[in-house]
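I have been asked to look over a protein record a colleague put together. Thanks in advance; the entry in question is below.
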Amino acid sequence: MNIDLTSIIIAIIGLSFFLVPVALDYLLKKKSSKKIEKELFRLAKSKNARITKCDVWRDSYAIGIGSDSRKLFYLKKQQDKNEEIMINLAEVKKCSISKTNGSIKGQHNRMNVNQVSLILTFLDSDKPEKKLAFYRKDQDQNLQGEIDLAEKWVSIINLKLL
């Protein structure tokens, strides 16, 4: 009986060495995501709007939209200052995705993504397009679903433009 109890205790201790750091990492990321989401909601509130749909990724990006206001909000946390953008969708003609690729050194016919962004084209042709970064290889590590997320938001935004 002692051997079984000892084995169980050793297994629990060994498992805790794995589970505790994973759980702490998850909780810290969740707290950071909530903080960014809160900042995005604060930005919307400062513009007299309310966000009804939003996404946060990489603990440094957030995008949201208000169903009644037709305003799009984007937040990118940076070390020196945050990039906060509000776009009135009544002024937008279309939204599309921009993916820039670069070749992987030493490998033929393989491409890797350097950047994923939403491109907002305005009705006023004199107004330059607005680029909202979802992923930049020089700032972020590898892709973590940003292409799918960008496609989701292109659909959401373009539905608002109809």
Remarks:
- Strands lie at 53-57, 61-65, 71-76, 83-88, 92-103, 111-122, 130-136.
- The two ends are 71 Å apart (CA to CA).
